[in-house]
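User: Let's play a game. I give you a shape written as tokens, and you guess the letters that built it. Ready? Here's round one.
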């Protein structure tokens, strides 16, 4: 969403507001905030051309901490507000910051439609698998059996998988990263920002108060090499501390295989983020720990017309065929009457 025209030299400090950052000490949101500021500085987009829109939740404090324009909007409705901002001024760089509760419960309908329309906005979904702001109830992404204040005997809801939802809505850019891997987080945010169309990024974010260690399997020094697999375009799916394991397709079912004894990297599934058909990306989004290593990186990155471009094309065509029009003519058209 950055352009060469109007680029300015900025630093991460330029994007820091004068508001005290009030997340719990140790929250993963601090890491995300820091990397977003770094990426925005590198893009060179003027602050006055940048807008952050949020809903309700811990993640939704984000606009207060950015020295840009912003809206702290209504629960679940950030995509609708962001769509209005982008349509009103397509030159703006628009970011939606949301959480698993905000986006996938009350906001599920709005999330689906902004994605399927391919509005040119960047959606960052902080997924900590819990409601943090309201003190620890289970969320739409909490695993089945999760015991919380609102599910003392264990949740009986099957969890939603955000990337599967986004790919099902045919998102043009889909990625996953994690708060503590700052290098990868920065890389994914940069890729998302440069994508033309809806970019959807799920960020695994640790809530150290109400769901501490939810992603320890993917971040722990002794486990992460075997429980996470980092996607690279046109490269085979290889993982493991010694990079001796991989993912192979058995028909349409992925399976973990060991390299060696005749099994080579050429026999593995190769990642293709540019496939117009979303089936492969969807398959990868269904790979979950502990059965599989969990994919991180860019699942899908394709080009498609954006909502606002098509909208303005329609407006242009209407003006060519019918003229620019006048509000007065519209008001006076047809039968009118006066109420005394």
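Assistant: Ready! My guess for every position:
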């Amino acid at each position: 969403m950055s352009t060469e025209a109007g680029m300015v030299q900025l630093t991460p400090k330029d994007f820091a507001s004068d508001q005290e950052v009030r997340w719990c000490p140790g929250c993963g949101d601090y890491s995300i905030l820091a990397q977003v500021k770094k990426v925005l500085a590198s893009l060179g987009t003027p602050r006055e051309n940048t807008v952050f829109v949020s809903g309700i939740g811990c993640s939704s404090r984000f606009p207060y901490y950015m020295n840009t324009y912003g809206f702290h909007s209504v629960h679940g409705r950030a995509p609708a507000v962001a769509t209005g901002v982008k349509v009103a001024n397509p030159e703006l760089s628009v970011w939606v910051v949301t959480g698993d509760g905000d986006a996938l419960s009350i906001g599920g309908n709005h999330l689906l439609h902004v994605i399927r329309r391919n509005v040119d906005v960047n959606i960052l979904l902080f997924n900590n698998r819990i409601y943090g702001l309201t003190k620890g109830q289970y969320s739409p992404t909490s695993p089945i059996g999760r015991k919380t204040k609102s599910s003392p005997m264990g949740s009986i809801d099957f969890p939603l998988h955000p990337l599967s939802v986004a790919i099902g809505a045919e998102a043009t850019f889909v990625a996953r990263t994690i708060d503590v891997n700052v290098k990868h987080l920065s890389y994914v945010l940069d890729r998302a920002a440069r994508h033309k169309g809806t970019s959807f990024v799920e960020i695994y974010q640790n809530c150290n108060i109400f769901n501490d260690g939810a992603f320890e399997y993917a971040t722990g020094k002794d486990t992460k090499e075997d429980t996470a697999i980092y996607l690279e375009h046109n490269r085979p799916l290889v993982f493991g501390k010694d990079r001796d394991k991989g993912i192979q397709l058995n028909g349409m079912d992925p399976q973990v295989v060991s390299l060696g004894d005749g099994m080579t990297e050429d026999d593995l599934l190769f990642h293709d983020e540019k496939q117009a058909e979303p089936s492969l990306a969807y398959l990868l989004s269904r790979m979950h720990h502990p059965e599989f290593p969990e994919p991180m990186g860019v699942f899908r990155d394709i080009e498609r017309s954006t909502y606002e471009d098509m909208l303005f094309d329609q407006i242009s065509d209407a003006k060519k065929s019918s003229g620019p029009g006048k509000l007065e003519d519209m008001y006076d058209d047809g039968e009118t009457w006066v109420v005394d």
